[in-house]
TrEMBL record:
A Pfam short name: Zn_ribbon_LapB
Keyword Ribonucleoprotein (UniProt): no
Keywords: ATP-binding, DNA damage, DNA repair, DNA-binding, Hydrolase, Metal-binding, Nucleotide-binding, Stress response, Zinc, Zinc-finger
GO molecular function, one term: ATP binding
Lon-protease-like: annotated span: 351-453
Protein name, entry field: DNA repair protein RadA
Motif (RadA KNRFG motif): 252-256
Signal peptide stretch: none
Length: 453
């Protein structure tokens, strides 16, 4: 029987080393060497601990593959189900990322306690007692939930083969330790090997596995980016710890769209699903203020609604001031020039200040229309109508131009309780069932007429 062998490989060029080195001698990159398993000891692989031999895959004509049979586990949480694309797919690996203390463990334990399926909740972070205390806080009845405090993957598989759970939850991937690799838990090699073993387990037994992943300071899931490539679905749980609201979104989903998001409220007895998200925003925007506009922008792949504030006032000095925070000042000047030339606004003798709230910087051209609306609103001192938002670019001729991923932006706006969105007439919209009013405009003048007349 072959023993487990590991070697060190450069992640950049693939050169193999017998031991760890700081710099790859072949490609001269630093810190790219990680340990990997090259040969496994058959006996201790998860298969050996399971009963029976797993099926071998053979090619099947694509037209013969039956998709009707694809069932999904309803996990009795509307928000989570929807973000997953309609339930948990058997054999899938879901990674749930989020900052410490945001409520990942609470969310998963809460789901595990509610499920009618046999669920194994593996925790490497908390003791049985701590988990029980949390469970009592959330909901005491739990006939199908089993708890295991273990960090060794081989031991976890052994326990799995004994109790045969329908769903496995691992909290967290950074605490797992595989015997095949010598480095400490949480290192890149450990995370990679443990995830690979779990994927193999999930695919071969058709058991869904939900992993918790920690997030580093810069907002990415700790560990190699490859972790996100390996799993089927990457979810992110986020929110401001100063507020009670938490947002669950899919960053990647092999079985559904990434446009969906779920909203929860953290309460004393766990997380409550928020089915009508406008209840969050409406209270904030109760008082209509002139000079503010909401835009549907994209942050990477994710839609995000942000607020733009503009202040237009008479210039005190000869040359008017133009200040933009979080937005390109040149672009602001261009938009103001377009307003002068194409819409006849005399902004030449006005100071214009623009601010994107929340301290973020946006370079998405889709916020142009919102910037223009905020400037016009401040100039006229007339607040925009409630529940309206924008997603379009402005061209030099004053034309309203289409933007990418418009469906996702519209969906997000609708989800967050907005009732009307301004988009370009030339934007192709595939969306069918929506309740938000989509106002299609082709020129700046159209928008002005709709908003201020
Ligand atoms: P937790 O799930 O431990 O976060 P994570 O696993 O993402 O690190 O959440 C911890 C926070 O949630 C903690 O600050 C207390 C709070 N909380 C509640 O407000 N209500 C509850 O019912 C529970 C269980 C936790
Ligand atoms: Mg936790």
């Amino acid at each position: 029987m072959a023993k487990t062998k590991t070697a060190f490989f450069c992640q950049n060029c693939g050169t193999q080393y017998p031991k760890w080195v700081g710099q790859c001698t072949a490609c001269k990159e630093w810190n790219t060497i990680v340990e990997e398993v090259v040969q496994k000891e058959e006996k201790s692989s998860w298969k050996a601990t399971m009963n029976g031999t797993p099926k071998r895959a053979s090619p099947v004509n694509i037209s013969d593959i039956d998709t009707d049979k694809e069932i999904r586990y309803d996990i009795l949480d509307h928000e989570f189900n929807r973000v997953l694309g309609g339930g948990l797919v058997p054999g899938s690996l879901v990674l749930l990322g989020g900052e410490p203390g945001i409520g990942k463990s609470t969310l998963l334990l809460q789901i595990a306690l509610r499920l009618p399926y046999k669920t194994l909740y593996v925790s490497g972070e908390e003791s049985m007692k701590q988990i029980k205390m949390r469970a009592e806080r959330i909901q005491p009845n739990s006939a199908n939930c089993f708890v295991l405090t273990e960090t060794k993957t081989q031991q976890i598989f052994k326990q799995i083969s004994e109790i045969n759970p329908d769903i496995v939850v691992i909290d967290s991937i950074q605490t797992l330790h595989s015997d095949y690799i010598e480095s400490s838990a949480g290192s890149i090699s450990q995370i990679r090997e443990s995830t690979a073993e779990l994927i193999k387990f999930a695919k071969e037994t058709n058991t869904p596995v939900i992993l918790v992943g920690h997030i580093t300071k810069d907002g990415t899931i700790a560990g190699p980016k490859i972790l996100e490539h390996m799993v089927d679905t990457v979810l992110q749980f986020e929110g401001d710890r100063n507020y009670m609201y938490r947002i669950l979104r899919a960053l990647k989903n092999r079985f559904g769209s990434t446009a969906e998001l779920g909203i929860y409220e953290m309460q004393g007895d766990g997380l409550r699903e928020v089915s009508n998200p406008s209840e969050i925003l409406i209270s904030k925007y109760d008082e209509a203020l002139s000079g503010t506009a909401i835009v549907a922008t994209l942050e990477g792949m994710r839609p995000l609604l942000i607020e733009i504030q503009a202040l237009v006032s008479s210039a005190v000095y000869g040359t008017p001031q133009r200040t933009a925070t979080g937005f390109n000042a040149k672009r602001l000047n261009m938009l103001l020039a377009v307003l002068e030339k194409r819409a006849g606004f005399k902004l030449g003798a006005k100071d214009v200040f623009l601010n994107i709230t929340g301290g973020i910087t946006v370079d998405d051209p889709a916020i142009d229309l919102g910037v223009v609306a905020a400037v016009l609103s401040s100039n006229a001192d007339i607040p925009l109508e409630k529940g309206v938002c924008f997603a379009a670019e402005i061209g030099l001729a004053g034309e309203v131009r289409p933007v990418r991923r418009i469906d996702q932006r519209i969906l997000e706006a609708e989800k967050l309780g907005f009732t009307r969105i301004f988009v370009s007439k030339n934007n192709k919209i595939a969306l069918k069932n929506h309740s938000i009013l989509i106002s299609k405009v082709s020129k700046i003048e159209d928008v002005i007429r709709e908003l201020f007349d």
